[in-house]
Design goal:
By secondary structure, the protein is of the alpha/beta class. It has 2 domains: 61 residues, DNA polymerase, domain 1, CATH 1.10.150.530; 279 residues, TIM Barrel. Helix content is 30%, strand content 18%. It has 11 helices and 15 strands. A hairpin with a 5-residue loop joins strand 6 and strand 7. It comes from Oryza nivara (Indian wild rice). One of its GO terms (cellular component) is cytoplasm.
Length: 403
């Protein structure tokens, strides 16, 4: 789900803006399979962007070089406005060290396949992976000076959320740490001159980030490293559909922001549009957040809420949402549904979004409304990916919504 610019309303301001059939067992069994860890075996080539700094320093030492060379290499990869992708860009490293890197290390994990320009200035980058798979990354400039890169964490997605185009693909593979980090590196290389500094990262592209939690945690740590890409932890946001054990781990191990895709106020609706709810229901999900965030000082979670006409956008839904998030330090993002081929949903009209928003802020909640960006190039929320011939099944619509 590509990130979009935000309009903010607070409590003090009212400005006017399938069936219960079980999902595929593969969806949930896949959640229990951790991705393979990156390995740096002696004598093999290593992917430099797959290592955090301690790992890089240890590897440099193992090759017979001083730790100072590791820091100079790190800054060539991520700092000093270099963002090196070839050995000629490793300025300042001594000759022997550069020779060793040429023989034993790779600097680049992705290849640009295409860049699509949306009419509103949004860019969608198509990257080819070594195995021929394609992922999509979105760069979203904003007139306020904030530019966001929306990164992918998987090829496809196992969650089968019914409103998401990526979900039609099913899960093809996890992305490595290097493949995730390099999306942010490429964004800076390609667009810093045009848009200025890339200030924000959102893990809202293809995939469920916490399903690939090991690589996402490492990649986000590299992004916020003070000697590296230097993103503020508050400006790196990891989204999830609601994987409860992984949420606990993320909140315990990372200072980056968390966004939870809620999208419904009853288990009946959420079971339909987000099958993961059948494993981790609303009570368990919100109870876990309430407990874990209590232990984090001055931390707020973002709740993402895609507005689906006639499904989750009623006045009663708004009132239930107020009750559901009570006691959880949070901000609410209301997102207009972006149609795509095969979709069975329609976007909520703007006036109804405003009515829904006003009910929330009258109860003291902080609410953002997301404007669609890049939808003419299928770069907006829920539009990334290319399902191909094989697609996960649509779930049967509950009877009360069969209109």
């Amino acid at each position: 789900m590509a990130a979009l610019p935000l309009l903010r309303w607070g409590a003090s301001s009212l400005r006017g803006g399938h069936s219960s059939a079980p999902p595929s067992s593969r969806l949930f069994s896949a959640l229990r399979r951790p991705p393979a860890a990156a390995r740096c075996e002696p004598g093999s080539r290593v992917m430099l962007k797959g290592m955090d700094y301690p790992e890089l320093e240890n590897w440099v030492r193992s090759q017979g070089f001083r730790p100072g060379q590791a820091m100079m290499l790190w800054k060539c990869l991520y700092g000093n406005n270099v963002w090196a992708h070839c050995y000629d860009e490793l300025a300042g490293l001594n000759k022997d060290f550069r020779k060793m890197l040429t023989d034993h290390a790779d600097l680049k994990a992705l290849t640009v396949k295409d860049i699509l320009n949306a009419s509103d200035g949004t860019r969608k980058i198509l990257f080819s992976l070594e195995d021929g798979s394609v992922i999509e990354t979105v760069v979203i400039p904003c007139t306020s000076g904030r530019t966001t890169v929306c990164v992918s964490s998987q090829v496809g997605c196992a969650m089968n959320c019914q409103f998401c185009f990526t979900g039609r693909m099913g899960l093809r593979k996890h992305l490595s740490t290097a493949e995730i980090v390099e999306q942010a590196v490429f964004a800076r290389r390609l667009f810093s001159d045009e848009f200025g500094s890339i200030t924000n990262v959102v893990f809202m592209g293809m995939g469920e980030p916490l399903h690939n939690i090991d690589n996402v945690l490492k990649a986000s740590a590299i992004m916020v490293d003070e000697q590296g890409l230097q993103f503020s932890p508050r400006k790196v946001t990891v989204s999830t559909s609601g994987l409860v054990p992984q949420i606990k781990r993320f909140l315990q191990e990372s200072n980056c922001a968390l966004a939870v895709s809620l999208n419904a106020t009853t288990d009946e609706v959420r079971n339909w549009i987000m099958p993961i709810n059948r494993k981790y229901n609303l009570s368990l999900l919100l109870g876990t957040l309430r407990e874990e965030i209590r232990l984090k000082k001055k931390y707020k979670v973002f709740f993402e809420y895609v507005m689906l006409a006639g499904v989750n956008d009623s006045v009663d839904d708004a009132k239930r949402l107020v009750d559901l998030v009570r006691g959880i330090p949070c901000k609410i993002n209301l997102i207009s549904f972006n149609p795509h081929s095969g979709s069975q949903f329609k976007p909520t009209p703007d006036e109804k979004i405003i009515e829904f928003r006003n009910i929330l802020i009258q109860d003291g909640l902080v609410v953002f409304v997301r404007l669609s960006r890049g939808d003419d190039q299928m770069a907006a929320c829920g539009q990334l990916g290319e399902p191909g011939d094989y697609q996960l099944p649509l779930l049967r619509v509950p009877e009360k919504f069969q209109v």
